[in-house]
Amino acid sequence: MKNAPMTLSEEGENTLLRVSLATTFVSELLSGSSYDGNRTISGEGAAALLACLANQMDSVIKQSNRMCEEVHHDKH
Fold first, then answer.
1. What's the predicted TM-score (pTM) here?
2. Is the pLDDT at 37 greater than 70, yes or no?
3. Structural domain boundaries in the chain
4. Quick one: how many helices (H) and strands (E) in the chain?
5. CB atoms closer than 10 angstroms to residue 49
6. Count of CB atoms within 10 A of residue 48's CB?
């Protein structure tokens, strides 16, 4: 079974790029890049990580609001 080609929207591409930057950032932190005396971190990677987390929080809030609306609608 072959996978069909996938096309991403511009927003999807931006999200994928942020996830990639965030993953690289966390990987560098975990690999102990500070052992070589370099105690700086990537500002771009940190921003990408926070943006990914913010997007996840937004998704949770939106899903929660939808569930509350459904419960409210079902009660009436």
1. 0.55
2. no
3. 12-34+41-75
4. 2, 0
5. 20
6. 21
Which among 47, 53, 46 is positioned nearest to 26, based on CA atoms?
46
Closest CA to 48 of 56, 39, 40: 56
Residue 42: pLDDT band by 50, 70, 90 thresholds?
confident
Q: What is the token pair recorded at 3? A: 């996978």
Tokens of residue 11, six digits:
């927003």
Cβ 42 vs Cβ 19: under 8 Å: no
CA dihedral 22, 25, 29, 31 (to 10 degrees): 110
The span from the CA of 35 to the CA of 59, in Å, is 37
The residue assigned the tokens 């990914």 is 52
